[in-house]
Amino acid sequence: MNRERERELLLRLSDPQATLPGPLAERSARNPASAYTSVERFEHERTALFRRLPNLVGLSAECPKPGDFLSGDLGGVPIVALRQPDGSLRGFVNACRHRAATLLEGRCGSVSRAIACPYHGWTYELDGRLRQRPGAEPGFDDVAREGLSLHAIAIAEAHGLIFARAEGDGGVSVDAALQGAERELGDYGLERYCHIETRTAEQPFNWKLVIDTFTEPYHIPWLHKNTIAPDYCFDRWIFDAYGAHGRFIGVRKSIASELEKPHGADRRLLPHATTQYLLLPNAVLVHQIDHVELWRVTPLAVDRTRVATSLYAPAEPKSDKERAYWLKNLDALLRVTNSEDFPMMARIQRNLASGAVPELVYGKMEPALVHFHASVNAALARAEKEES
C-alpha cells in the first residue's frame, strides 16, 4: 500500500464527523440457513465459483524457480501450476493421461527435468507434452502421443499473485480478476516476498464460515477476550469494495497515539492495522504489521472445508533465529483461530444443520460480511442465468 493511500485511509479514521461504531453498511441483510447447509446449493457453488471463476491459487513465492510447482483443488478439479524454464507459468489438471493417477503430490515442491507418474512411469515435459511411456510403446502404438499432453487450464500471474480457472473458454487476467484492487495490491511488492510455511487442516463447517470469520471485529471483545481483545478496536474499521471483492481493515488500539501526531505526514496506518483482502471466492490475503498471510479455502462437502494458511516474509530469513520468529507468528495466528474462531464456526454449523435456526442476520456494522454474501449470491445468480 503506498503512502498516499495510507494517508487517505488515516484521514477517514480520524474524521471528527465519524460515528462509532462505523462506518456502517447501507443496510442490514438476512441469509437463509440453507446458504450453509443445502447440498444442492453447495454443488452449485463448487461449479459456478470454484471451477468457473478465477481463484487465487497462491503467491509467486511458492514456486519461484523452473521446475517448482504449486498444486490446488478448484471445485474438485486437481490442478497444478508449474514454473517453466523461461520463468513463465503453465497450469494443468494434475492427473496422468493414462489412468488419471495424481502426478505431483503435496502443496508445493519441485521436479527436475520431467514429471513422472507414480503409477506406470509415464513421463511428461514441463510444458505438459508426453515424453515417454516406458516399456509399453507397442501396447499403445494405436494411440498417438501428440494427443496425450496434460490437460491445460487457464492460469495467470501478476503482482506476485497466481490465479487459475479450471473451466471455461479463454485465458485469465490477474488485473481483471482483481476488479480494481490490482493497483493497491501491486504496491505491496508481493513478488519479492519469501514463502515461510503453509499449514493445512480440515474443518467441520461450510467454506463460507471461514471467510465470515475475517469480515468483522464485532466479535473480538467476547470471542477473543482472553487473547487479542486487549489490543484491538471492535468499533472502528475501514471497508471498501472492489467489485465482488473487498478490503477490510481492522485497527489496533495503538492507532490512537498515531492519530494524535500533529503532522499527518508522520502518521502510519499499516503498523497498527490488519489489512484483509477478501478475494471471492476462495481467499483472504492479509497484511499484518511486518508480513503477509494467505488463507485459502477448498470446499470438500457442505459441512467440510480444507483450510490452508500460509505465511510470507519480506525477504529470505538470514538465520534460524529469524525463521523461528516467522514461525512463531504463524503459531500465534493459528493458536487463536484453531482454539477460538474455528470451534465457534463448527458450533454454528451444527446449529444451522439442526433446522431450528432459519436464517442469519448480518448487521450494518458488518459491512464486509454483507458485501461478501451479496457477492456470492450475485455470482450464483449470474451463473444460473448463463445456464438457462
Protein described:
It is a single chain. This protein has 388 residues and is α+β, with helices and mostly antiparallel strands. It has two domains: 1-52 and 180-388, Naphthalene 1,2-dioxygenase Alpha Subunit, Chain A, domain 1, CATH 3.90.380.10; 55-171, Rieske [2Fe-2S] iron-sulphur domain (Rieske Iron-sulfur Protein). The chain is built from ten helices and 19 strands. It has helices spanning 3-14, 34-37, 39-51, 174-178, 182-186, 207-213, 220-223, 255-259, 320-353, 367-387, and strands at 29-32, 55-59, 68-74, 77-83, 89-93, 108-110, 115-116, 123-124, 130-132, 152-158, 161-165, 194-203, 232-242, 245-252, 273-279, 283-288, 291-301, 304-313, 359-362. The strands form four sheets. It has a seven-stranded antiparallel β-sheet with strand order 2-11-10-5-4-3-6. The longest helix has 34 residues, at 320-353. The protein is globular and about 80 Å long. The mean pLDDT is 93.
Shape: globular
Number of strands: 19
- Write down the CATH topology of the largest domain: Naphthalene 1,2-dioxygenase Alpha Subunit, Chain A, domain 1
By DSSP (H or I, 4+ residues per run), the number of helices equals 10
Q: Strand-and-helix sequence, N→C? A: HEHHEEEEEEEEEEHHEHHEEHEEEEHEH
As residue ranges, the low-confidence spans are none
| Rg | 22 Å
Rounded mean pLDDT score: 93
Q: Sketch the major β-sheet.
A: 7 strands, antiparallel
CATH architecture of the largest domain: Alpha-Beta Complex
Structural topology:
Blueprint: H1 3-14, E1 29-32, H2 34-37, H3 39-51, E2 55-59, E3 68-74, E4 77-83, E5 89-93, E6 108-110, E7 115-116, E8 123-124, E9 130-132, E10 152-158, E11 161-165, H4 174-178, H5 182-186, E12 194-203, H6 207-213, H7 220-223, E13 232-242, E14 245-252, H8 255-259, E15 273-279, E16 283-288, E17 291-301, E18 304-313, H9 320-353, E19 359-362, H10 367-387
Antiparallel strand pairs: 1-19, 2-11, 3-4, 3-6, 4-5, 5-10, 7-8, 8-9, 10-11, 12-18, 13-14, 14-15, 15-16, 16-17, 17-18
Helix pairs in contact: 3-10
